[in-house]
Fold this protein.
Amino acid sequence: MTGGAPTQGRSLFGQPVGLTVLFLTEMWEKFSFYGMRALLVYYMTKQLLIAQEEASLIYGFYAAFVYFTPIVGGYVSDRWLGRRKSVIIGGSVMALGHFMMAFEPAFYGALALIAVGNGLFLPSLPSQIGALYGPADPRRHRAYNVYYVGVNLGGLLAPLVCGTLGETLGWHYGFGAAGVGMLAGLVIYVLGRKHLPADPPRGRLVQSGPMTRAGGQKFLLVLLGVGLCVIVFRGAYEQVGNTVALWSDKDVNRIAGGFTIPATWFQALNPLLVFVLTPLFLAHWSHQAAKGHEPSPLAKMSLGAFTVASAFLLLAVVATMSGRAPASWIWLAAFFALLTAGELYILPVGLGLFARLAPGGMVATTIAAWFLAAFAGNLLAGVLGAQWTRMGPTAFFAMMASVAGLSGLLLAVMAAFTRQAEPADDSPVKPAILREG
């Protein structure tokens, strides 16, 4: 399947039409992914009667495998299938896996299919963003933040729809709705393919991009260091769908005005806040850039990790003050506000950094390397989450604050180190790690 050049018109947030196609495709894919994830721990512990420790490990290993398969899928996309075919094949396999979740005997097979399909889909969709823009197009600098809104809009709708169906009508209705969402994303992608860039030549490395400039090995070392920091960060961050979900179900007073808020709804707060805060943050960064004060990507990521650490520290304090009494749901909402603010400073910024430093012809593979950090981070999160019952909320959340804080400290050290190596202002090779864009 081939396509013409992308149209140059503007659509969402003043970006090319093709970005809206990718935005909506990703929105529905994440609707399916997060819709299933919102139910997964509850389904295992309440329906399949799996012990909490084992359920947390299964959750962690599944989430990790979801981010491991893209390193293989990205290579297959770059070398053989191409990005378009990879998105369509991967999305179809994922939809099948979601529908299989409606049948208890197919539980583990369904998880495997979703992870395998995701391997082709996940790196191949965002790797099409860069080709929507010319080299000097200033809109490219923040396109990944706009794209990240699509990720989280789907994440917002997922707990409200799939979570509600799963908790009220039955788990299988929620899983079925997730499968329908994946099909909707595929339809949008196929119908909007004329607005997307054609696949680049496959089977060979194109010698272009930052990696071919002076100091290319330093770029690779920085990306490796960033990946290791993100692994540590995700060990804490990925508790949102794991131990934080368990805490919100059993240890939080979810009554508001006589209505008991479903536990899965709180997982919609994070993507809702991403949707609300992203335009504000983009405007703030643009204002900083206009004055020449915008932080470097590594400095932003460090600040984000420290902010997430403060969110978990808040939960540790709340758990201590509440004792055995349920904590107010207001504190849980405050946690998600802090968590989301920190997330916006680290995850979309890191994704954009990996994409901009990718060598020509290997963009999907390089982006897959970003998700490989998520793989290891989810493994770490599963291992840490298995300590939840033994440690209790206060000690566990304090440990998560320390984990996220360690990541922030490491990123701050990297930011300071790269700043010292910054070339003169008129140097043509000033690294992207030292500036925005």
